[in-house]
Design a protein that fits this description.
Blueprint: E1 3-9, E2 12-19, E3 22-30, H1 33-43, E4 48-49, H2 57-67, H3 86-96, E5 104-105, H4 106-112, H5 119-127, E6 140-141, H6 155-166
Parallel strand pairs: 1-4, 5-6
Antiparallel strand pairs: 1-2, 2-3
Length: 178
């Protein structure tokens, strides 16, 4: 059975969904907590809202810290990687090692996977990331200093906002708060 919890952060209500093998989903902060609830119920039919288990307290605290602009390490969060294709899992493992405030390009991840021609596949895998923030797909940019895509609500603007919260140089590409 899948459970989920919604919690407050400095920029809105985020959420986590989990099953017996770890996290199955993360929802980026929203103003309306019901948006996260509906998203989990759509993604995981029959999911039940519950208090997060104590084992997830560090993940919730880490997400909240990142949303306050603090550095946090979420690499210890247990993910249910059995729910994603093996290639995507490899991409997510590399992306999880990118520290807050830093970025890699799609091509750099492709090279780490052994073939620079996999850059588009890396982008496609990140576009399917069920664990945004925990798997920091916002820290992956296009070549030549370009931002690249972002499939979450708000698109590139959301990506820039997350990078700005972390103090990443890539966030200087646009005026976010003007």
């Amino acid at each position: 059975m899948i459970h989920f919890a919604v919690f407050e952060t400095a920029i809105g209500c985020a959420g986590l969904a989990w099953g017996e093998h770890g996290l199955v989903g993360v929802h980026l902060p929203e103003r309306d907590p019901d948006v996260a609830r509906r998203s989990f119920q759509r993604r995981f039919p029959g999911a039940v809202e519950a208090a997060a288990p104590e084992a997830l307290a560090p993940v919730i605290a880490g997400i909240a810290a990142l949303m306050r602009g603090e550095k946090a390490d979420l690499t210890g969060a247990e993910l249910d990687l059995g729910r994603v294709p093996a290639f995507n899992a490899q991409v997510y493992e590399i992306a999880r090692r990118i520290p807050p405030g830093e970025t890699l390009t799609y091509g750099e991840i492709a090279v780490q996977l052994g073939d620079k021609l996999l850059a588009r596949d890396v982008g496609a895998a990140l576009g399917q990331n069920p664990w945004p923030i925990v798997v920091p797909c916002h820290r992956v940019t296009a070549a030549g200093g370009k931002l690249g895509g972002f499939s979450a609500r708000g698109g590139a603007r959301t990506k820039l906002k997350l990078l700005a919260l972390e103090g990443a140089p890539a966030a200087a590409q646009a005026e976010l708060f003007g």
